[in-house]
Design a protein that fits this description.
This protein is 59% helix and 0% strand. It is mainly alpha-helical. It has a domain of 62 residues. The longest helix is centred in the first third of the chain and has 22 residues. The N and C termini lie far apart (52 Å).
Length: 112
Amino acid sequence: MKKVWMFVGITLVAGAAGIFLIFGNGATADPHAEEKRALAAFQTYIASRENQQFDVRYGQLSSAAQARVTKEQFVSKYRSIFAGIEADHVKIKPVFPPISFKGSVAMVKEET
């Protein structure tokens, strides 16, 4: 009977360790990973806008937005707009200081 309980105990410990390894340790994960990804996406958006890389900007659209316009239409439209207003050297600079808040925002991650 003692061996059975020892087996059960070892199985539970091994199972808990397996779950821990599979789902990761939140304490060691980067707590700012989502923030860093969002900042990187925004920086890509700014750079692609400043450099008129409209194909890159199209790639940042949601799948619902991409379903409404083709890549060729999107790129053509924005090239026409920038050419029409003679915007050769566009620089985007923040006008306001960074804003922070303590609330929460629901975000939807699309599967790619």
